UniProtKB/TrEMBL annotation:
Sites where the protein binds FAD: A14, E38, L46, L82, W338, G345, V346, I347
Co-factor(s): FAD
Enzyme nomenclature, EC number: 1.18.1.2
Domain FAD/NAD(P)-binding: 4-165
Record-stated family: Belongs to the ferredoxin--NADP reductase type 1 family.
Organism (species): Candidatus Planktophila limnetica
Substrates-to-products reaction catalysed: 2 reduced [2Fe-2S]-[ferredoxin] + NADP(+) + H(+) = 2 oxidized [2Fe-2S]-[ferredoxin] + NADPH
Gene Ontology molecular function: any one: ferredoxin-NADP+ reductase activity
Residues reported to bind NADP(+): R197, R198, E209, G345
Record keywords: FAD, Flavoprotein, NADP, Oxidoreductase
Protein name: ferredoxin--NADP(+) reductase
Membrane-traversing stretches: none
Entries under SUPFAM superfamilies matching the protein: Nucleotide-binding domain
């Protein structure tokens, strides 16, 4: 029975669902040996370093990932970086198919003056900072201001605004990075604006996330009822289901009784940012609004307006994505997930996306290569295997237990390697 070797680069949701689709496609006349390569010593991608820590339910998908990782014919090669420790062209020679599943890690630029100022950052830097991503622990997040502005009307903007606006004691039972909880506890921010450039009928939020907002225990969430009334009119008599659900959820927030909390999170619609101003440090944002120019003073601006893929040598990119046709890049190279289709959809979207690409890969497979594997390329490198990762995982979970947290994340690469046994 022929066994085809498939390398998956990137241990996030897209990578795991690609592995799962391969496992599901095995038959009496075809099996797959799957090697997943991940540059960090920890797998799970955005489930570890992207999902908001106050939404732990979303992270339970990691149980599925662990099942895939232990289902057989699967090996993890953590702490191995493509382009540094191993070259793409070498992988392509060793494997029958190579699948890029590296996501989109760069924040899109607003393209307005002031993005270079201290106090302006992208969600692409802020989110991994509070999630203990080893490469982002040094991000400078100035929280010594009373007002923050989040630009964008998607779920990432909402995550970011919520993390800034909630009472940080609510983060104690979460796996937020310890240093970030400490910083949030010292934060002076009491007012967070979440600014959408269009009306509420166009917002990219999803309704379950909106419906969660009034449950914040120490924060007033403010949406102007007249904004939503206008959006309902603009949406017309037969709005799409998602738009209607969103507007219903936002109307409920607008009508939700306000309390005396000093912490507020306020939605502003039809606010198009045109300039970020300040002397070396963010001091205000200028917006174009339907009634003219409006200036809001603030000390922190975070844009959450989408992501682009980090370019890699040997791969062509277009509009922030890997150039591909239905997942095929060239020769035996394929792409799945956000690197393929851009940053859209929820974690589960990657399942059907990957299944389609795996079908295409299988249809292109002929005779298996007999050319070794990644072990021939990396020599004595410190590889975090599934066994090493399970030790790290258990140690993090164990240190969280007495604190009532799901885990205490280790953010230092060397410490992670040490925990893994190196
Ligand atoms: P997104 O949903 O595409 O939202 C991006 C937002 O940025 C849109 O509101 C867009 O407005 C706005 N925008 C783009 N360019 C702009 C500019 N130049 N100036 C001002 N605003 C601008 O992206 P995301 O929030 O990064 O989320 C990515 C994906 O992850 C989404 O599918 C999201 O649902 C998912 N996600 C899900 C969860 C969850 O389920 N809990 C959490 C986080 C993320 P326009 O519409 O006007 O372009």
């Amino acid at each position: 029975m022929p066994t085809f070797k498939v390398a998956i680069v990137g241990a996030g949701p897209a990578g795991y669902f690609a592995a799962q689709a391969l496992q599901n496609a095995q038959s009496d006349d075809k099996t797959f040996a799957i090697d997943m390569i991940e540059r960090l010593p920890t797998p799970w991608g955005l489930v570890r370093s992207g999902v908001a820590p106050d939404h732990p339910k979303i992270k339970t998908v990691s149980k599925v990932f662990e099942k895939i990782a232990t289902a057989g014919n699967f090996r993890l090669f953590g702490n191995v970086e493509l382009g540094t420790d191993v070259q793409l062209s070498d992988l392509q020679k060793k494997y029958d198919a190579v699948i890029i599943a590296t996501g989109t890690s760069l924040g899109r630029k607003l393209g307005i003056p002031g993005e270079e100022l201290k106090g302006y950052l992208s969600a692409a830097d802020f989110v991994p900072w509070y999630n203990a991503h080893p490469d982002y622990t040094d991000v400078d997040v100035p929280l010594d201001t009373d007002t923050a502005i989040v630009i964008g009307a998607g779920n990432v903007a909402m995550d970011v605004a919520r993390m800034l606006a909630l009472d940080p004691t609510e983060l104690d039972p979460t796996d937020t990075a310890n240093y970030a909880i400490a910083a949030f506890k010292k934060s002076g921010i009491r007012k967070v604006y979440i600014c959408a450039r269009r009306g509420a009928e166009h917002a990219a939020f999803t309704s379950p996330e909106l419906r969660d907002l009034p449950k914040l225990e120490h924060t007033n969430v403010i949406i102007s009822k007249s904004d939503i009334d206008a959006a309902i009119t603009a949406a017309g008599d037969a709005p799409e289901k998602d738009v209607k659900n969103n507007l219903d959820a936002m109307l409920a927030i607008a009508e939700h009784e306000k309390t005396s909390h000093v912490r507020t999170m306020e939605f502003l619609f039809h606010h198009v940012p045109t300039e970020i101003k300040g002397a070396g440090q963010v001091q205000e944002v200028v917006f174009k609004t339907p009634t003219g120019e409006k200036v809001i003073k603030c000390g922190l601006v975070i844009s959450a307006i989408g992501y682009e893929a980090q370019p890699m040598t040997g791969i062509a990119y277009e509009k922030g994505k890997v150039l591909n046709t239905d997942g095929r890049v060239k020769d035996n190279l394929y792409v799945v997930g956000w690197a393929k289709r851009g940053p859209s959809g929820v974690i589960g979207t990657n399942k059907s996306d990957a299944a389609g690409v795996i079908e295409l890969i299988i249809s292109n497979l002929t005779t298996p290569k007999n050319s070794g594997d990644i072990n021939d390329l990396i020599g004595a490198h410190k590889v975090i295997t599934q066994t090493h990762w399970e030790v790290i995982n258990a140690a993090e979970v164990a240190s969280g237990e007495p604190l009532g947290k799901p885990r205490v994340k280790v953010a230092d690469k060397e410490e992670l390697l040490r925990l893994g046994g190196f």
